[in-house]
Amino acid sequence: MNKDLTVGKPSSVLFRFCLPLFGSIIFQQLYNIADSLVAGRFVGENALAAVGNSYEITLIFIAFSFGCNIGCSVVVAEFFGARHYERMKTAVTTALISSGVLCAALMAAGLIGCTALLRLIRTPAELMADSALYLSIYIWGLPFLFFYNIATGIFSALGDSKTPFVFLAISSLSNIVVDILFVTLLHMGVDGVAWATFLCQGMSGVLALVAVFRRLRKIVTDRPAPLFSGVILRKIVRIAVPSTLQQSFISVGNILIQSVINGFGAGVIAGYSASVKLNNLVITSFTTLGNGISNYTAQNLGAGKPERVRQGFSAGLRLVWALCVPLALLYFAAPEMLLRLFMEQPTAAATQTGVMFLRILSPFYFVVSAKLVADGILRGAGKMGAFMTATLTDLALRVVLAFALSRTPLGATGIWCAWPVGWCIAAALSVAFYHGGYGRTASGLRRLFRRRPA
Question: How far apart are the C-alpha atoms of 195 and 242, rounded to whole Å?
């Protein structure tokens, strides 16, 4: 069901819209968490480390799919808010065609260069074979990842966050079952974990695409919409490229950090692999809520209602901070219990690493969530320069400090200390860009968020 985000009380509208988005990201993260959990408990600590090691490289591919999702979603939401349904349909097919070409190029590059990338991040010899196997199978599933993300972006742009939630919930739960089946009953190792993700993500991608085309057929236009538009592609690219670069730079930064971590041995890698999955569950949840705020912003700007954006910022902060409280408390108070979900008999190094990582980062979830809400509005308004500045500042600080502090007596703990520094400074920048004379008044918002005609 399509939902108009330009009417109704902003806090209620955002809550109803973002709640299924939050549920969706929980199930999305179950893909990677299930892989690590099954690998760690049923195959061994080295298998957990191999999956975690490969995961940092898969984030590069996820970054591109995320950029396609955001670019398509913001443009479709703007056309939907402005009631330009023919252009909206063309935006959908243009995004699908261009994303398909990009996906094919990434698959070719990934299959050719995955082993070289693993060597580049100093993958230990005992993890190399499993890491390469997991990564190559993952790359074959990239079309499903891309088209699923495009489909969910379209649903979100139309104000429907429930349909992708249903598809993803079914697929993620299936992934857990198939993971366990392949590893325990069929006695497969890391390859079983990878093939389970391939099959179940494929199912969700196909179902989501079918649902998108059925939904679009119900929206009547005066004439058939063109399949492709260079003008609309440029609008999508203007949003997608900075979003992709942002996520790609973060992924490259994480790979550089992973190369530092790999120098501390398999135990530290395993502990980091488990704890970073738990951390990413939180950060990705905040990011998804920020994406929902982007769609809310784009729809309201398309409808000529910029004053609702300021109200949406306040409502978004209340929403993410309500989520922060239980998660930060849980991660800080009971990290060892959470880590044991991934590891049957963890080594002392793995446990110590995971506990320290979560206890250092969790108190700062309130800070990074505020950044991601402000980023959502900046991205939905097409203000990508400000968005990129704040995000790349965070990345640069984390990478530089991770290298520097890892060489001090702090050792691996110094790497984890880099996260809060980057988050605090980047959050200050993002909120300042939003508030810098614009967030206080409706007239200021009109200056900041003035758009060209759709």
Answer: 32
**Using N-to-C axis directions, what is the helix angle for 125-140 and 85-120, rounded to 10°?**
160
Of 198, 82, 80, nearest to 136 by C-alpha is 198
CA gap 173, 182 in Å, rounded:
14
Q: Is residue 166 classed as helix, strand or coil in its secondary structure?
A: helix
Distance, in Å, from the CA atom of 76 to the CA atom of 68, rounded to the nearest integer, reads 12
Helix (H, G, I), strand (E, B) or coil at 438: coil
Tokens read off for 8: 């109704």
Rounded Cα distance, 89 and 82, in Å: 13
Q: To 5 degrees, how large is the angle CA 114–CA 115–CA 121?
A: 90
Burial class (CB in 10 A: 0-12, 13-18, 19+), 416: buried
The whole-angstrom separation of Cα 415 and Cα 410 is: 8
Tens digits of residue pLDDT in 48-100: 778 878 877 887 898 899 888 888 988 998 898 888 999 999 999 999 999 99
Contact (CB, 8 A) for 282 and 331: yes
Distance CA(112)–CA(363), nearest Å, equals 41
Give the pLDDT confidence of 9-32 residue by residue, as tens digits: 888 888 888 777 777 667 766 666
C-alpha gyration radius of the chain: 21
DSSP letter (8 states) at residue 346 = -
Dihedral of CA atoms 40, 46, 50, 51 in degrees, nearest 10, equals 0
* Cα 239 from chain centre: 16
